[in-house]
Every structure is written in structure tokens, then in C-alpha cells.
Write a structure and sequence with these properties.
The structure is a single chain. The chain has about 350 residues and is mainly α. Helices cover about 75% and strands about 0% of the residues. The protein has 17 helices and no strands. Helix 3 packs antiparallel against helix 4 and helix 3 crosses helix 6. The protein is globular. It comes from Cairina moschata (Muscovy duck). This is Solute carrier family 10 member 4. InterPro entries: BilAc:Na_symport/Acr3, Bilac:Na_transpt, Na+/solute_symporter_sf.
Length: about 350
């Protein structure tokens, strides 16, 4: 019947409402995922370790150099090298300016790294991102200043999204201080899963150019190499070098996705908000190869290093025992001294 047919305008309106509802639902899910991730990050921080690192802030300095000097510059150079347009360039730059992700904490355990250093670098880079991430994004986006997207770059909204992560991080630190067992559970929940993308995600990723795929492959790999070189310059031991390497290459893709989804207009950013997921896939795969290579070839050197530390401890202990024996033997009388007759000085009469 003619009366039962829906007008085209009404059908278009219903479709628009459906797309808007889907977009709002996706934004809520992205926000919740970010809150859970930041809560897990806060639960991994212990106040005693934080105070110790602040007294000797090597981890904070490495996080500053790796996440806000090396990685943003790397993202900028790759965007220029592959001649990206402004939309893809902003997505790549935003991912490069993000702080470290908590995936590196898990990977550091698998390569016998310094877990305390890994957690401190992740937490400090997240706090530093409140000021340095908008600054780096503003500096490196000047090359595309003549485009509408960069001219309307929502740096204020980016800062607001970063500031909203302070609440779950602070709550996580409080949970760690009051309820350590609950904090251990929340750390496991907050670790991002690396699963297979769904059909909608695959369809969106099909529209991403091949040059962006190449950057997603090269960027984490170069980040791992830059982090290892940076730790070598600071003359850190091998297990700390592996930790800094993973911390530098692993980015907080949950935060990058949330910023792209919540602060940028969808009609401008298009499918590029899927770039963090693409980066996450390759950074996980390459970190897995890193772990596999270490398990096959590097574990023996780690055991020798640990054995060398134990031998140094044994030598120090033996030296300490010898010094104690020398101290206790001071002033004792031997058998020969017992049998000898003391010679007394005689005075001659004048």
C-alpha cells in the first residue's frame, strides 16, 4: 500500500540517527576502555618505587627522551618520507606523540627486563603527556598548517582528554596502596588484549592506504631500535636496555584511539582513527618476535650475567670473612710467643 511506504527523507533521517547512535556507542566503549587501561596503569605503580625513581630520575629522563623527542620526530619523518596527506599525517603524529603503553610492562617480564623501570617509565610518560603531547602535536603539524584539519586542530580537547585520565590513574594508585591483591587483579584486567579484529574493523582498515600500513610496520620497529640505542648511550645494563627498548616502541594505542574518536570530527578524520589499531597489531607482533629471539638466543647470556653477579657477591663475602679473621687475630698470643721469655731492659750503674 502507498500509505505503508516510508518517505525517502524519513528513511534517510532514520539512517542518520542509526549512524549517530552507533558512533555515540562506539565513543562510550572507547572511553570505558581508556578508563580501564589507565586504572590498570595506576594499580601497577607503587609509591615507594615512585619516590625512589624521583630521587634518581633516570627512568623519567629516558621516558622524556624516548616518548617526546625520539618517537614524535620519527613519526614526523615517516609522514614526510611517505608523503602522507594531512589526515593520515595527523593520525601518525598523534600516535607518535602518545606516551608509553602498558603492553611494554608485560613484554618486559617476558624478556627478563627491569619491571620497576618499565612501570615508572610508563607512568611518568603518561603524566608528562599532559603538557608535552599537545606541544609536540602542535610543533610537528606545522608542515600541514594550510589544511583545514590542522587549522582546526582541537588541542584543547586533546588536553582535556589527557587530563581526564588522571582520575583513574590516581584511583589505581590508591587501590594499590590500600588493597594490593585487588590491584594485582585490576592490572591483569587493564592489560590490553591483542585479538583478531572484527568484520567492521577489517572493512574500515581496507580503506587505509598502503603507505600508512608501511609506517605502521616500520614505526614500532624503529622505536625499539631507538630505545635500545638510547639506553646504550646511558650505559645501562642489558636487561635495562631491553626494557627501555620495549617502552619506547610500545605506544598507548588506547589513548590515541580515544583522542581521535572523541576530539576530531568524524567527517574529517574518516577511517584514520583505525590507525592506532593497525599500529597495535604490528607493535605486538614485532614485540613477540623480540621475545622469541630473546628466548632462543639471549637467555643464556642473561643467565651468565646473573651468575657473574652471584660470583661477585661470593667474592665480596669471602673478602669480608678474611677481613673479619684478620681483625680477630689482631692482638692474639701464639704458642711461640707464650714460650718466649720477655727481655727486660737493664739499667747500668753509673
Amino acid at each position: 500500500m502507498a500509505g505503508s511506504e516510508q518517505p525517502p527523507a524519513a528513511a534517510g533521517a532514520d539512517g542518520g540517527l542509526g549512524d549517530r547512535s552507533l558512533s555515540q556507542g562506539l565513543s562510550v566503549l572507547v572511553g570505558l576502555a581508556l578508563c580501564v587501561t589507565m586504572l590498570g596503569l595506576g594499580c601497577a605503580v607503587e609509591l615507594g618505587q615512585l619516590g625512589q625513581q624521583l630521587r634518581r630520575p633516570v627512568g623519567v629522563l629516558l621516558a622524556l627522551l624516548g616518548q617526546f623527542v625520539a618517537m614524535p620526530l620519527l613519526a614526523f619523518l615517516l609522514a614526510l618520507l611517505f608523503a602522507l596527506d594531512e589526515v593520515a599525517a595527523v593520525a601518525v603524529l598523534l600516535c607518535g606523540c602518545c606516551p608509553g603503553g602498558n603492553l611494554s610492562n608485560l613484554m618486559s617480564v617476558l624478556v627478563d627486563g627491569d619491571m620497576n623501570l618499565s612501570i615508572i617509565m610508563t607512568a611518568s610518560s603518561t603524566l608528562l603527556a599532559l603538557f608535552l603531547m599537545p606541544l609536540c602535536l602542535w610543533v610537528y603539524s606545522r608542515h600541514w598548517i594550510n589544511t583545514a584539519l590542522v587549522q582546526l586542530l582541537p588541542l584543547g580537547a586533546v588536553s582535556l582528554t589527557l587530563g581526564s585520565t588522571l582520575l583513574p590513574i590516581g584511583l589505581g594508585v590508591l587501590v594499590r596502596y590500600r588493597h594490593p591483591r585487588a590491584a594485582d587483579l585490576l592490572v591483569k584486567v587493564g592489560t590490553p588484549p591483542t585479538g583478531r579484529p572484527g568484520g567492521v574493523v577489517v572493512e574500515l582498515m581496507a580503506h587505509i592506504p598502503a603507505s600508512v600500513y608501511a609506517i605502521a610496520v616500520l614505526m614500532p620497529l624503529a622505536g625499539y631500535a631507538l630505545g635500545y640505542g638510547l639506553a646504550t648511550i646511558f650505559k645501562m645494563p642489558p636487561h635495562c636496555r631491553r626494557t627501555v627498548s620495549l617502552e619506547t616502541g610500545c605506544q598507548n594505542v588506547q589513548l590515541c584511539t580515544a583522542i581521535l574518536k572523541l576530539t576530531f570530527p568524524p567527517q574529517l578524520i574518516g577511517s584514520m582513527y583505525m590507525f592506532p589499531l593497525l599500529y597495535a597489531l604490528f607493535q605486538s607482533a614485532e614485540a613477540g618476535l623480540f621475545v622469541l629471539a630473546y628466548k632462543m638466543y639471549g637467555r643464556d647470556s642473561y643467565k651468565q650475567e646473573a651468575l657473574g653477579e652471584e660470583e661477585d657477591t661470593d667474592i665480596s663475602y669471602k673478602k669480608l670473612k678474611e677481613e673479619e679473621v684478620a681483625d680477630t687475630s689482631y692482638g692474639t698470643v701464639t704458642a711461640e710467643e707464650r714460650g718466649s721469655v720477655p727481655m727486660e731492659p737493664t739499667q747500668t750503674a753509673l
